[in-house]
Write a structure and sequence with these properties.
It is built from 1 helix and 12 strands. It is an alpha+beta fold. The protein folds into 2 domains: 31 residues; 139 residues, Immunoglobulin-like, CATH 2.60.40.
């Protein structure tokens, strides 16, 4: 009878220890989410990025070639994580009344997921420039705004293009989704 009592007590202690360990591991896993992974615990309290807390650069790539692009890099210059979604709203040149460029039909649909940027984190997009014929536009800068989850555009900020030939030309242009990887193997 003593053996049975001890066995039940040992089994109960082992079961309680297993439940406690499982609970502790579950809480640790939930609370230690990676801010770049967009898990439930990771994005709690993270706000949308604002244009004034991002450092945006643009480099004109493949200038003078068919299929040249503006590589857009946005870095979180703030102290807290923030998120971007969709694709940036871009207006080429100095015409602030112009419509924003459309989303590229060659890009993946469904760019509505949030990408969280830690402080110092980066995301990328690109403007595809199509230059054909003599009736094209030329510029060296553009305006960029972030979009909310509802698709609305925020305030526009001016961005100067850099690179070997910062001046770019286009007849038509479109924009790619934000991504954590550089598009087109830049």
């Amino acid at each position: 009878m003593t053996t049975t009592h001890l066995s039940r007590r040992t089994a109960r202690s082992a079961a309680l220890a297993a439940v406690t360990t499982a609970l502790a591991l579950g809480l640790a896993a939930y609370g230690s989410g990676d801010a770049d992974a967009n898990g439930r615990g990771a994005t709690a309290g993270v706000q949308a990025c604002r244009g004034d807390e991002l450092m945006v650069t643009a480099v004109h790539r493949f200038a003078g070639q068919q299929g040249d692009h503006l590589l857009i890099t946005a870095s979180n210059a703030g102290a807290k994580p923030c998120w971007v979604t969709s694709y940036p709203a871009v207006k080429l040149g100095g015409d602030v009344d112009a419509a924003s460029l459309p989303h590229s039909t060659k890009d993946n649909p469904g760019g509505d997921r949030r990408i969280t940027l830690r402080a110092g984190g980066k995301v990328y997009s690109a403007v595809n420039l199509f230059d054909y014929g003599p009736n094209h536009h030329t510029a060296q800068s553009f305006a960029l705004a972030l979009r909310g989850t509802d698709g609305r555009e925020g305030p526009f900020y001016s961005v100067d293009a850099k690179g070997e030939r910062p001046r770019f030309s286009w007849n038509e242009a479109d924009v790619l989704n934000w991504n954590t990887e550089k598009p087109y193997d830049f």
